[in-house]
From TrEMBL:
Keyword ATP-binding among UniProt keywords: no
CDD domains: AKR_AKR13C1_2
Cell cycle in keyword set: no
This protein's name: Aldo/keto reductase
Any one cellular-component term (Gene Ontology): cytoplasm
GO MF, one example: oxidoreductase activity
Residue spans crossing the bilayer: none
Domain of life: Bacteria
Amino acid sequence: MSIRPTPMNADLEGQNQQRRHLMLTAATLGVAPWLLSACASTAGGAEAGRSPGRPQAAGARRRLGPLEVFPVGLGCQWRPGATPGVVVDSYSSRFDRPAAIRLIRQAVDQGVTLIDTAEAYGPFLSEDIVGEALQGIRDKVVLETKFGFDIDQVTGQRLPGGRNSRPEHIRRVVDAQLRRLRTDRIDVLIQHRVDPNVPIEDVAGTVKDLIGAGKVRHFGLSEPGLQSVRRAHAVQPLAVIQNEYSMLWRGPEAQVLPLCEELGIGFVCWSPLGMGFLAGGVRADSRFATAPITDFRAISPRFAPEVLPANMALADLVRNWAQRKNATPGQLSLAWLLAQKPWIVPIPGTTNAAHMTENLGAASISFTAQELQQLNTAVAAIRIQGDRLPPAVAVMSGVEAAPKR
């Protein structure tokens, strides 16, 4: 909803006009608003509690449970490429390790404060890169990582058990994560997927002990069953739920977001750009690599050749609205997520520094109540064909933990 400022004097009105101009220009150019304000600022003292070296736009922070972060985070989900020294993501993009480190540091320089990764990404590679990149700037970020798969902590081999959230395994994992991340604490420790064989009370209790030991600050769950959320929260309050959420997949709106609102839990969106679909990176005739490394979209039903042309209706809608808002499709998609709730933070991943900067521009885009209603109605009218995930992956979402005996 648009709110008209009440001018108290001519100077205040002039400041408001300058701020509105700044936000509009930032949205048009696709940059974070503080980048422009840094260039346009005049001499004068910094506001109380604000670093003079990094000007901040009004509203450039949001609550994520007990945390406060920039509205757009950075997801670091990488694995070794087919060629030594090459790092790839799940969608056929690649760069080298030095470029990955530069990307993370550039993101922090541009205001990003939420960095997300996991032991399973690599395994271990992403945590190791993040740890190196954050040397000297660790205190500027909220560092989020995940546990929950059965991975040998020495070799990185994925073990037959699949998921493993036994208390003794969690403790070993966290010690190894702290070494890889080169830090003394994990700001948000997230169970990557619920282990159906371990009571969630045991998981939450273990994390509570790790918080007491100073190794972890906050607890979260990813793609959990609803009752597991309540049970975990009763033992150790959850800071975040991390689920897939975008215009391409709106599943959390039915039950998960209301539960987060009820319990005061922040919500982190993985795949907020629909695996590149909403950013304009997919065409009706796109086909995805299966060798030498499989593009995840090659095994995702909603990207299958027989349904992709019909699903492009959503990409067309996003592109049209992006033009209307003087934004890129990616920015429009991220801004839509930010407009849904004030405690939602997307974590788009990328291997491209220009795309990372572009994504941050979403924080400068707003919708009137009428615009948001129109856009939500238009998105809801498009029926996406094909399941969101392959069966072997989908079966791990919405799982309830074993009952506590």
